[in-house]
Q: What sequence folds into this?
């Protein structure tokens, strides 16, 4: 295992309800095709594929009542060497708190969103290599901050205190955040509506 990935756990947050997507189309956005191409993988599969092998561990967090997504994960997680954590959650922050409580990391965590399938592996590798216990890392594209984000192990107590739907936003309001500029618009592109998917 390369030194650059040791001590880092990737957490994929896949516990949202996708309300904005469901307003347009009644289906789980994480399980729809990531593009218009025939045979294109589901959104979550593409997200996980980009992260596979990039960190020492890979943990997917989802709701314990999302039976369709849980069934898919149970069938597919082995392909990505991913662990599944099914939680009862009241929001993004609460999901993240439960994830770090479940899976510690010596250097820190790479926190990714399940609905961001277009992030390039090179961008992920740069972020992972930079994660250290005292650091907060964020990718930027043309000066705009994106995801996934690196959170050092020293921030564990603050992560454990998260609740509700704000996630780790307050951490990243700090001046201690280190930005990594990447040539990758995928760090800004999430799928909130059907038209957000890339057509290939």
A:
């Amino acid at each position: 295992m390369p030194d650059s990935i040791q001590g880092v756990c990737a957490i994929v947050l896949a516990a949202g309800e996708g309300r904005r997507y469901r307003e347009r189309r009644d289906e789980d956005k994480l399980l729809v095709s990531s593009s218009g191409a025939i045979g294109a993988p589901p959104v979550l599969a593409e997200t996980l594929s980009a992260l596979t092998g990039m960190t020492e561990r890979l943990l997917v967090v989802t709701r314990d009542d999302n039976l369709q997504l849980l069934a898919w994960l149970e069938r597919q997680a082995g392909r990505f060497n991913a662990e599944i954590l099914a939680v009862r959650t009241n929001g993004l922050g609460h999901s993240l708190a439960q994830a770090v409580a479940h899976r510690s990391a010596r250097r820190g965590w790479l926190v990714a969103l399940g609905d961001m399938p277009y992030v390039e592996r090179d961008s992920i590798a740069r972020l992972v290599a930079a994660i250290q216990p005292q650091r907060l890392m964020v990718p930027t594209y043309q000066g705009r901050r994106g995801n996934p984000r690196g959170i050092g192990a020293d921030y564990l107590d603050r992560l454990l205190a998260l609740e509700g739907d704000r996630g780790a936003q307050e951490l990243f309001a700090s001046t201690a955040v280190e930005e990594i500029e990447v040539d990758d618009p995928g760090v800004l592109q999430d799928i909130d509506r059907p038209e957000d998917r890339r057509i290939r």
Remarks:
- The chain has one domain: 3-191.
- The longest strand covers residues 8-14.
